[in-house]
Structure formats: structure tokens, C-alpha cells
Amino acid sequence: MAAKRDLLRFITCGSVDDGKSTLIGRLLHDCGVIFEDTYTALSADSQRHSTTGDAMDFALLLDGLEAERQQGITIDVAYRYFATPCRSFIVADTPGHEQYTRNMATGASTASLAIILVDATKGLLPQSRRHSIICSLLGIRHVVLAINKMDLIGFDAARFTAIAAEYRTFAAALGFQDITALPISARQGDNITSLSSKTPWYRGPFLLAHLEAVDVAADDAAKPFRFPVQWVNRPDEDFRGFAGTLASGRIAAGDAIMLAATGAQSRVARIVTADGDLPEAVAGQAVTLTLADEIDIARGDMLVAPSARPETADQFAADVLWMGNEPMLPGRDYLLRIGHAWTTARVTSLRHRLEVTTREYQAARQLEMNDIGLCHLSCLQPLSFDPYAKNRATGAFILVDRFTHETVAAGMIRHGLRRATNIHRAAFTVDRTARSESYGQRPILLWFTGLSGSGKSTIANLVEQALFAAGRHCYSLDGDNLRLGLCNDLGFTPADRVENIRRAGEVAKLFLDAGLIVLGSFISPFRAERQMLRELLPAGEFLEIHVDAPIETCIARDPKGLYAKAKAGLIPNFTGISSPYEAPENPDMHLKTGDFTAEECAEQVLQALRGKGIAC
Known about the structure:
Blueprint (H helix, E strand, L loop, with lengths): L6 E8 L5 H11 L5 H14 L16 H6 L6 E6 L4 E6 L7 H8 L4 E7 L6 H12 L4 E7 L8 H15 L6 E6 L23 H7 L12 E3 L2 E6 L2 E7 L4 E3 L3 E4 L5 E8 L7 E3 L3 E6 L10 E3 L6 E12 L10 E6 L2 E15 L4 E3 L9 E14 L10 E5 L6 E10 L15 H8 L4 E6 L6 H14 L4 E5 H5 L10 H20 L3 E5 L5 H10 L5 E7 L2 H7 L4 H6 L21 E4 L5 H14 L5
Parallel strand pairs: 1-3, 1-4, 4-5, 5-6, 23-25, 23-26, 24-25, 26-27
Antiparallel strand pairs: 2-3, 7-15, 8-9, 9-14, 10-13, 11-12, 11-15, 12-14, 16-20, 16-22, 17-18, 17-21, 18-19, 18-20, 21-22
Helix pairs in contact: 9-15, 11-12
């Protein structure tokens, strides 16, 4: 019987202390799915941790972490399985605290229905609105508005009607298919598994009846065939298969397939499983496909139906939920994962930020934790995808910090951007190799990074003088000089600093293509951008030089009088005072200008260049 019941995945969400865990605990209890030993333990835990006096604290069934029980809040996502004669359920009880919004998004990503709780004594709160918007962005189309703690307002019908009306007005533009409002008391069990006599004015279903009856069937099998390749299965030279789970559609032996990225075609020879071959597979099944032809396919590729190809582009627009502790900075490189494919991606622009309380679009330079924004992204290589609104499995991605490996964002693709598709790099007979050979030198970027006053420009100037005297063709790019021209539209916010270094890197790359030795003197406070420069250039053409002086030494020197102004509050976002400097962890060179003169440091750089075969 259990195998024949369909499955509903749903979440509980809303603001903190709205009763989410209590609701699910009460639902499990009233459905009779709590084992006797669990109930006994719950009784004991209620005596130690309960906030409900002598009554049973059903929230403790979900709040499993000790920190959750001590604070009386939900921190992590708690998943519970239960079933009734009509349906099976997996519920994700998600946290209400704003700082754990990322956990709520994780729970919502696989759900088909959301129970959004609202405290009847408080009404709609910003987090209730934020969670509703996230549910909408993540493709949830069925909502239960559970107006909880009705017992605290005497089951006031007018209050219930007012909150429900306010929510429907707010959610009108979110694209929900249906919104069912329920007056409940999670603690007392009113309208949870049966209609309550305390709400004779309510004519709708009780919660469990609605969960059993709501039609959330998403016919993934009717969508175009999509098969992200998770693993190339090659146990021996006679077998080569492609393992994965059908994201959507169906496939049968003999059907034509296409590699989305290249358009290469073949036919399915076999559909292999651990229990034997299948004549056909449908969405949700994990299988291994073998093909009639040898095609170059790797993990992360996508097999599709030739008659319904997805979009393939290296730039796209997407709704982004930022979850990182550090803000999202346009121009910074992140790792992007979509399906099983990884690539380097950059947020090229933040089109707008969504104000969750008013649903207004606002101009912004960056996204902070829990912000939602429409972004344009550019990837190192083309990706195959569907708009998230059409296929949740192939239109979702995550962004990962390249240094901490923390997941910092969840994204939902809207559409590809048809930019630069008709532009191709021009090839010239005189290339960088010819230019560098004519100069008799190897191009290289010497990148001097350090605090203001550490001696970057001074040392770079001495090195350039020696190179020029030796007949080398070189050029100095100084941070201050670029800000007087190319970057005069940028300030000193973290986002502007990222863009400043991106532009400087592109200019340096052009000079290296011209065969020159380039000396760049920039504070460049962030490791991510310095790593971006290294990866922008061929191996061996980037030399990171940390010009290191203690902050006290830099302040004592203060050649431009900047530290005094910064300490007086006249210069905001000043590196070393009100803005951080991320010192290189493994620089190619480390110059300690507090211990050596500028001339001695310059000679160290020249010696390093001689070691690389650059005469000077």
C-alpha cells in the first residue's frame, strides 16, 4: 500500500517563534506516528526544555540540536517522514531566524508545497514575506497560510480574515497557483487533523485533509528529456556507459539523443540498472545509458532530446539569493555548479535588489546576506540549461567561494543573454610571440601589492628604471594613475575595488600581449582578485610581490597624509583603517620594507627576474 501512495514534499516556514516546529510535532502526534519510546522521551524533554509549562512541548520532536532546545529556536532543517492511508509525506521544518535563511532555501528547493506560518498576535512580518518570495523563486506554487496561535486572540474571525487578505494582496504577484488560509492553534491542535469547534465560522478544510487532497503533481515525465551525466561508467574496455538520474522526460532504448553542448548525436543502445536492463526510463530514475556511437561525453555534460534542446550560453540572467557572510561583489570570480558541471563564473552586474517588505526593485551595488537580486552572470565556458520556471532541475545553480569553499548563493536562471555571440577574437599575424621575440624578452606582470605607504610605487619605479636602462621594454601601471582616468568613475567600496582590479588586469593583459614587462602597483586588498589576475594570464606570467610594512610603519610614513584623514573619519573605506587588507598567503616574493631599504628590495626583484631569464 505504501508503494502505491504518492509522495508530497512540503516545508514549514515563516518568522521565528511562529510555531513551525510545534505544528509539525502536533501533526505527527495526532497522526499517531510517534513511537511509545519517543513519546516517553518527549515527555521527559518537555520537563527540561519546555516553554509550555506542564503541557507537552511538541516542538522538541523537531528541534534535535541541543542549541535549538536551549534557545527554543530551529537552526538546522529537520526532515521527517510520515504517512496516512491517503498519502506519504516528507516535511522539512525550516528555521525562521533571518541568519538561517540559507537553510530555509535548502528545504524549499525540493518542496512542492509550503506551509507559511503567521503568528496571529503579530501579523505578517518581514521574514514571512521573505520566505514567501523565496518559495516563489524556488518554484513552489502551492501555499498554506497557517495563521497560528488563534487561541491567544480568542479565535477572532475578523483578525484571521484581515491577515489572510493582507497576505493575498502581498502574494498576488508571486505566481502561486493556490493559497489556502487556515486558522489553527498548533499547541492545542485546532484544525490540524480535524475541524475545531472553536472556529464554527471557518468553512475550509483542516490541515491534514488539505495536505492529503492537494494536487501538486508536476508531470516531469511530460517535459523534454534531460539527463545530466553524473559519472562515466567504464569498468572495462568493453563497456562505456553514462550514469545519472533523469531530470525530466523519458527515454527508451533506440531513441535518438544529443549532447547539448556540441550537438553530437547518437541513439540509446541500452538502459542499464542494477536489476537488469529496462526498455524505458522516466524522470526520477537513476540509470546508466549506453550509446550506439562513441561520443566524447564527460561528467557534467547533459544528454537531451534532439527535438527539444535546452539553451546553451556563457551568459545568463538569474534571480540570486545571497547566503554568504561576505557580500556579493560584481566582478569577483566564484565557482558555479549547475547539475554536475563546475565552472568559474562572475556576476557581471547586479540589475536590482528586491526589497522583501514592499516587493520594490531597488538599485544596489552589492548583495548582503539573505538579499535577493536579479543578476547577470558570465561563465568561463558555455553551460546548457533551461529557464528555472520550466525545469527546476536544470535551471538551478549554486555559487561557491573559491577560497573558503562555502556555498554563498543559490540561483534560478531566467534566460540566456545573447551577448557577443556574433563577435569572434581577431587573429593577427603579428602576435604576442612575435612581439616578445622582437624585443628579446619574455612578458611578465610584476604585481606589487600592499598597504598604502608600504613602498609599492617606489620599488616598482626603481625596478622599472633598471629594466629600462638594460634595454627592456616595460611599462608601469599605478593604481593612483588609473583612478585619474580609466577608473575615475569608481569609488572605494568593496564592489568598486573589485572592478578597479578587474579593469587593471585587463589592461595589463593587453600590455603583455604587446610583449612588454608590466609593473602594477595596487593595494589590491582582496585575495580573490589577485588570484583572478593569476588565472587571467598564461602560467608563469604573473609574479605576486607582497610589499610588506607594519601598519604602524605605514602610518608613520604617511607620504600622502591619507592615514591621518582616515583616522579622523574623513576617508571612508580606507584599507588598513576602516577596510580590511587580505595579505597574500603564498606570494611569489615577500619584500619586508620595514627591514630593508627600497633599493635593497628592488634588487631582490631584479635578482628574481634574472633567475627567470629576464636580463636586467
